[in-house]
User: Fold this.
Amino acid sequence: MTRRASWVGIDAGADVVAICILDAAGSILREGSAHASASAIEEALPKTKKGLLVGIEAGGTAIHLTRGLRQAGYDVRVLETRHVHAFLELRQNKSDRNDARGIADVLRLGWQAVPEVFVKSERSQRLRSELVLRQRLMQQRIATESAMRGILRSNGGNITRAWSGAHLEKTVIAEIERLRATGVDLGEVLLPTLEVVVMVRRTLETITRRLARVARDDEVCSRLMTVPGVGCISALSFYTAIDEPSRFIRNEDVGPYLGLAPKLNQSGQSSRMGHISKRGNQMTRSHLVSAAKVLMQLSKQDNTLRRWALALKERAGPSKARVALARRLAVVLLAIWKSGQRFDPQRIPTCPLAIGAEAHSTAPASVTVADKC
Assistant:
């Protein structure tokens, strides 16, 4: 075990970072600022890397800084934002300088008490960024189209659901012309917005086609997509959220990691299971819930997962069944990834499904993969 001689706290901003270096007694050895680049920070740090521990709060800027500093040979720990923020709030004044000092204090007093954030590989990070961009565009598209439908509806018009940009453009223009014949002209209001929405739809189609090619060509994602209900987006979302499956000792740990496990409130003889924590990645969690919904609706599919979910739906309702199935899907996907196998609906699971288990079970078993749970 390396004996620490000094601790470095870095408060990373978009352009400038604040740096504070503390000794074993908590005295400040050096304070300052540097440009938000790994090379600039390296110049401000001691040349002797032995016994030096660097801490940085998780964030967008922290990703490339951490990679650069680790390549330079520094021991860098990325600390979870929520826990660091709780510690920094104890200080009276908030400033970049005080935050850097606080992060250094967290390291010196016991960084093991603060969860460390896993830094994904560059490939996973790029794919993740494209998935996030796709999700943002989807949200904008849905919001804008809903506003257009509202304007048309309030003026006596209506448009059916469109499956492509060309179909939407044709439908909206036809409805504008119909309303114009009745004396209501919405062309000046809706046509510029329609042009933007069609462009967003075409961009989304391009991004989705590219992601689908990536998923099909990737050996891991192609195996994940053998699970019914899991498409290219859900497979890539899970793949980039996990990135390194070996960091999960038990397959069941992936449920709480993605925020799909319920919160426990226990005090004395009182013990109550609440809603799911939702502390994991929101995008991947929503993709898994969507995959669970699709799997439950696939009437031609007959597998252990679907039968378990439908039995739970009868007892606990569709909403809880979807979330429970999403949690179990995450466990199955991780098990498939680790084992190198494909989904086999007829295979007898190593961990039998307890149809009578409660919907809020916190340790869902691996369902169709013959590795130990």
